[in-house]
Amino acid sequence: MSLHQIMYISSATGPVSATQCAAIAKDAEDRNRVDGVTGLLLFNSKRFLQVLEGPRDAVERIYQRVARDGRHNAIVKLRDMPIEAREFGEWGMAYDDPFQPASALKDKVAKLLDHAGPSTRAHFIGSAEMHRG
Ligand SMILES: Cc1cc2nc3c(=O)[nH]c(=O)nc-3n(C[C@H](O)[C@H](O)[C@H](O)COP(=O)(O)O)c2cc1C
């Protein structure tokens, strides 16, 4: 079975609460599991950064569906490539909690990226830093 990875960044079209974001992630996890697709969804109160990994057909189908979702726009694909192994063993979720210091999100993301390669880490760490300006 050939494994594939798609990574994209997008902008939220409206306000997304921590609760809504957790619901999007939980829903995605449940749906993706059926197709053997895993990955990571990061939200930093303005932007989403998501990685989808799994069988190529399923990853592309899910990406097409997600890309049409009106809750985000300005989607930019950062990666679309075959992979030898999953960079993220299990689904993870991180978001900006206003009651935590800004560094908390970065720490959380770093932890979720334990097994990811250097280029993936750079994308996510950058994303965790790019807000609260
Ligand atoms: C940022 C973001 C990420 C999403 N990720 C997934 C995902 O990984 N898998 C998934 O099935 N749906 C995901 N969704 C939800 C889909 O866009 C869509 O609402 C859902 O799959 C239901 O599609 P349907 O109404 O055509 O059945 C995501 C939505 C957003 C806004």
- What is the strand tally? 5
Bound molecules: flavin mononucleotide
Please tally the helical runs, counting DSSP H or I stretches of 4 or more residues. Answer: 4
Secondary structure category: alpha+beta
Question: Can you give the mean pLDDT?
Answer: 86
Please write the CATH class name: Alpha Beta
Radius of gyration: 14 Å
Domain BLUF: 3-94
GO molecular function: blue light photoreceptor activity; FAD binding
Organism: Sphingobium lactosutens DS20
Protein name: BLUF domain-containing protein
Characterise this structure:
With 133 residues, this protein is of the alpha+beta class. The chain has one domain (3-129): Alpha-Beta Plaits. Helix content is 39%, strand content 31%. The protein has four helices and five strands, in the order E-H-E-E-H-E-E-H-H. It has helices at 18-34, 56-67, 102-112, 118-129; strands at 3-12, 38-43, 47-55, 72-83, 92-95. The N and C termini lie far apart (43 Å). The chain binds flavin mononucleotide. Residues 24, 28, 31-32, 41, 48, 50, 52, 62, 65-66, 69, 71-72 line the site of flavin mononucleotide. InterPro entries: Acylphosphatase-like_dom_sf (IPR036046), BLUF_domain (IPR007024). Residues 3-94 form the BLUF domain. It holds the Pfam family BLUF.
A few lines on this structure:
By secondary structure, the protein is an alpha+beta fold.
List the helices and strands and how they pair.
Blueprint: E1 3-12, H1 18-34, E2 38-43, E3 47-55, H2 56-67, E4 72-83, E5 92-95, H3 102-112, H4 118-129
Parallel strand pairs: 2-5
Antiparallel strand pairs: 1-3, 1-4, 2-3
Residues 24, 28, 31-32, 41, 48, 50, 52, 62, 65-66, 69, 71-72 line the site of flavin mononucleotide (FMN).
Domain BLUF: 3-94
Protein name: BLUF domain-containing protein
Pfam families: BLUF
